[in-house]
Amino acid sequence: MSQISLTFPDGNTRDYAAGITPADVAADISTSLAKKAISATVNGAHWDLQWPIDADASVAIHTMKDAPQALELIRHDLAHIMARAVQEIWPATKVTIGPVIENGWYYDFDREEPFTPEDLGEIEAKMKEIINARDAVRTEVWSRADAIAHYEATGENYKVELVNAIPDDGQPIRMYWHGDWQDLCRGPHLQHTGQVPADAFKLMKVAGAYWRGDSKNPMLQRIYGVAFQNRDELKKYLTFLEEAEKRDHRRLGREMDLFHMQEEAPGQIFWHPNGWRIYTVLQDYMRRQQDRGGYVEVNTPQVVSRKLWEASGHWENYQENMFIVEVDEDHAREKTVNALKPMNCPCHVQVFNSGLKSYRDLPLRMAEFGSCNRYEPSGALHGIMRVRGFTQDDAHIFCMESQIESETAKFIEFLAAIYSDLGFNDWTIKLSTRPEKRIGSDESWDRVEAALGNACKAAGYEFEVQEGEGAFYGPKLEFTLTDAIGREWQCGTLQVDPNLPERLDAVYIGEDGAKHRPVMLHRAVLGSFERFIGILIEEHAGRLPFWLAPRQVVVASIVSDADGYVHDVVRRLRAAGVRAEADTRNEKINYKVREHSVGKVPVILAVGMKEVDERTVTLRRLGEKDTKVVGLDEVIGQLSTEATAPDLL
Prior knowledge:
This protein is of the alpha+beta class. It has 20 helices and 33 strands. The longest helix is centred in the first third of the chain and has 23 residues, at 67-89. The protein is globular, with a radius of gyration of 31 Å. The N and C termini lie far apart (82 Å).
């Protein structure tokens, strides 16, 4: 038998007979390692302890302390254990696929009866029985014919289809047994069911899913589960989900009466007065910031001819995401084909091209609160975070290549000030560099990538490099926020683009009197207003900063005799720039306080006859139990200051 050489992480090598398994290697190293081993990495691939190693290789043995590998195996094994549990409880159920996903797994089942919440509890109990049984896990390699014959005999038609779909390129068809239950799987897996922590998983929900993602195929039932290495990590994750649910912008949007969506306009938002107030206050703030930042604001058409989209390259590469508009111009025989604009950049080039530009005009910072429409699959829509109609805080900076670094540094400082005003101080920058398929010379890429990196440093920020993640025409910066509960949101961007000016023939007259091609910097701070407002709502759990809150103050009467004073207070607050409203309903003050607190009104001013006589109000702030009596002039001055946007203070 031939010998192979295995190299370990510490650089040491050992010789073994070809065909040795990682389990045998672990046992050769030490008895304790053999007991703790769960898998191996062989030449960079995650390897089952039972799989043979037939050639020289680098090898690392993993234990439960190796989090990435351990979590992958725990979640993968739980998918199989769940499928086994379902078939033990309901033998007629057919199994399909069950991959590992972020934080857990799912498995799709074909069962006539729908799963209920009570069923999930029963499945969990059966899974724990299987885990406690410590059944051995074993694997075999089968021929395609044997696998198909096996699944045809057991009536598992979905597995037959999966086997037939496996490329006939010599790759092994692996069968795994967890006890007596068997599944088709590429592996790897743990060595027995007892290695899965029985108190660190939970089944979460059932959802519908078409077989292989095709609506022409049968609808299956998908059960989702989450799993971690120990109970504390599971508890932490479930607490996170509870907090995320409390902050869900869709729920808060209803409670605060901000917006709604309906099936007659999928992916489009019906803004209510409260929500539109947030929108316009945020937009006014951004407009002032852009004015100060040297931007000129433009507005471009919503419906644009197919010819422009063909010239820009979007028709060829983005048509499936565009809404097409056909118009019978003057009853011509052929309809004119247009599209709702999915982005603003080609139209901004048209504005740039209108009239001759000189190097003295550069950099030209052109901004638009551009309304765009993109087709998103219905399954991808998510409240106001993922929609089909949205408005971007979009801008394009036309400049010379020599100005890229200074303009990028200015933009980073511009973005940082805005994020700070909006309460986001935890954010990172990622620099996406040249992909394998690209245009332009290496020298040009070197200069532009260095310019973006130098700009980050000049602005005082570190950055993470994402190798090969840039567009084919240029590198980009991505700005990612971390919110109050640790979630990351990629919002701001700056993309270097020499390609679109080339395609749309944008030129300026240089100092030498010749025509030159400008570079275009696509840039956004918020991204879309819709998505960013959703992020703001969830970041603050609906308790928006006072200057952004749609309903800043409610003045509520305790007795009807105080109604006149209530309206007087409201008038004075509004005159001072505070969004105030009166609540003089014939309801108890505690009822009013509860209702307005659910609506996330930041300040409630309660008024009774004592307040009328003393020209005071009783002030209650959202989330605080204590109240205090404050003089009317004092509270108006205080709230007027709080109502002022940060950039106006």
